[in-house]
Design goal:
Order of helices and strands: HHHH
Helix content: 40-55%
Oligomer: single chain
Bound molecules: zinc ion
Number of strands: 0
Shape: rod-shaped
Structural class: mainly alpha
Radius of gyration: 49 Å
């Protein structure tokens, strides 16, 4: 290589010019920065096992609100007339409130209709059991009476 200052030819490995002492190559401060090692790619294991959330059935029409009208009529006929009528009134309110868009009121009436239907059913069963007990006791009494004869 040639000296950039005086043009004297120097050995390629020479650090300074033999003629003028000019530095032939810039001082090397350490090794040049090597590029950083490539980042090991993080395997997206978590993402591989992350299934997309299940898409629910499309919500169409809102939740159905039973009016329990059939149950109310049945318990009215077979169990308890006054309590069953209360259930029928609430059951009728379900449809009328739904007709005007009162969903909350319709649900409340639905719950009341179901509640009074169960109350009526329970009262009817209680009444039927009482009738049955009285009748059964009477039958037993009659059997006992006839058995003595
Ligand atoms: Zn030189």
């Amino acid at each position: 290589m040639y000296c950039t200052k005086c043009g004297t030819r120097n050995d390629d490995t020479a650090l300074t010019c033999v003629q003028c002492g000019n530095a032939l190559r810039p001082p090397v401060f350490g090794t040049p920065a090597s590029p950083p090692p490539p980042q090991t790619p993080q395997a997206p294991i978590a993402q591989a096992y992350t299934q997309p959330p299940p898409v629910g059935q499309p919500f169409i029409g809102g939740p159905p609100i039973p009016n329990y009208l059939v149950q109310a009529i049945l318990v009215t006929i077979f169990c308890c007339l006054p309590l069953g009528i209360v259930s029928i009134i609430y059951a009728a309110q379900v449809n009328s409130k739904l007709a005007v868009g009162d969903v909350a009121g319709a649900m409340a009436s639905s719950r009341s209709a179901k509640l009074w239907a169960w109350i009526s059913l329970g009262a009817g069963l209680f009444w039927a059991v009482g009738i049955g007990l009285i009748g059964g006791l009477g039958m037993i009494a009659n059997i006992a009476k006839y058995a003595h004869h």
